[in-house]
Design a protein that fits this description.
single chain; paralog of FGE (formylglycine-generating enzyme); five-stranded antiparallel beta sheet; disordered N terminus; alpha+beta; 369 residues
């Protein structure tokens, strides 16, 4: 749930302490997240950076799906949970962290009058700039809060996330027409103001909202779970069948969740639990945005619902295992305290070389300064 202005100071105080402890992670778009875990490296994960995102490669194409136990399906009316999840027959890249405040501020300030429904988050590190010209909605990141630019973002709608992916797909231009199509065809919204009944990924998309299968595979599938070449799924996204401990990292916590009164913090930099990683090196899968992460997979019953995966800072202290961490929501309307991370294609070898050279040059400059 979004916090009122009177509630925010207390949480901002907590965030200040957590942010100072996490300050070693770097700042803003130039930051590097924690190194990949030994397990992720052994699984062939490779890190790359593009448009201010840090991606990791998800390999093992054609992996077997996870079969949800029958008793879970029986007790989940609807049914909300698909029977088989996690199988992906191609390689792809996915962001290691959820959307950060700085990334959304860059986007929302560029298109203040064109941003789709649900574009203003409920919980993030930015504040409204009331000194902006009349009629202009603009946001800024407070300079008195360490790493506010890296705070996770809760409350972006499916439509807003689709527009953002279109913007990335088209190379981040300043022309608002770039929001209409590319990864998702949502042009009808800008023409009529009506939210599309379906928001479907377009062929040839270069950046997109992960599907349910892509999200589950990146979070739980391990090609070497039980030994070399013995693949399987972990129950929790910390490469374990034991749930992570909820609470602040400085108190031994391993995930940001538990709700308002159980240790969950809506104002926390991404990557604050650097050693808690999925088998591919993803961070913050257990405890991020308020109620989990968007996927672009429609509900199997064909309703306007889309699947959401994972837990968030507002999740109760009993962390949900894989099969319970999949549910449905209406993210095509208002954001609903849901976050998202971006997925993208595997770059060509030539593009990869350029990215590696640029990243290496930036690292050298950072070391010299």
């Amino acid at each position: 749930m979004p916090l009122s202005r009177c509630q925010r100071p207390a949480f901002r105080g907590l965030a200040l302490g957590a942010a100072c402890l996490a300050a070693w992670c770097g700042s803003a778009l130039g930051q590097n997240l924690a190194p990949l875990s030994p397990r992720a490296v052994a699984n062939g994960a490779v890190v790359s950076r593009e448009h201010g995102w840090e991606f990791v490669t998800i390999g093992a194409p054609g992996n077997a799906p996870y079969e949800v136990p029958f008793e879970i399906l029986l007790n989940n009316p609807g049914p909300l949970t698909p029977t088989f999840v996690g199988s992906v027959n191609y390689e792809y890249r996915i962001a290691r962290s959820e959307l950060r405040t700085e990334q959304w501020v860059e986007f929302i300030n560029l298109f203040p009058n064109a941003l789709p429904l649900g574009g203003v988050p409920t919980d993030w590190g930015a504040e409204r700039d009331f000194d902006a010209p009349p009629g202009v909605r603009r946001y800024f990141i407070p300079s008195d809060i360490p790493r506010a630019a890296d705070y996770q973002v809760s409350g972006v709608s499916m439509l807003g996330a689709a527009a953002y992916c279109n913007w990335l797909h088209n190379g981040k231009p300043v022309d608002a027409s770039a929001l209409r199509s590319g990864a998702y065809d949502i042009g009808s919204y800008f023409d009529t103001g009506q939210v599309p009944l379906t928001i479907s990924r377009q062929a040839g998309a270069r950046f997109w909202i992960p599907s349910l299968d892509e999200s589950v595979k990146a979070g739980y599938f391990d090609p070497n779970r039980s030994g070399q070449g013995q693949a399987g799924y972990w129950l929790y996204p910390n490469s374990s069948d034991t749930p992570p401990i909820y609470g602040p990292a400085q108190l031994g916590g391993e995930a940001n969740a538990g709700g308002l009164f159980g240790g969950g913090n809506p104002y926390l930099p991404v990557g604050s639990y650097p050693t808690v990683q999925s088998p591919w090196g993803l961070l913050d899968l257990a405890g991020g945005a308020d109620f989990g992460e968007l996927t672009d997979t429609r509900h199997q019953l064909g309703t306007p619902l889309y699947y959401v995966r994972g837990s968030g800072w507002g999740t109760p202290s009993e962390l949900l295992p894989l099969e319970d961490a999949i549910y449905s929501a209406y993210p095509r309307f208002i954001g609903g305290q849901i976050g998202f991370r971006v997925a993208t294609v595997i770059p060509s070898s030539a593009t990869s070389l350029v990215v590696m050279i640029v990243w290496g040059a930036v690292s050298v400059v950072r070391r010299r300064t």
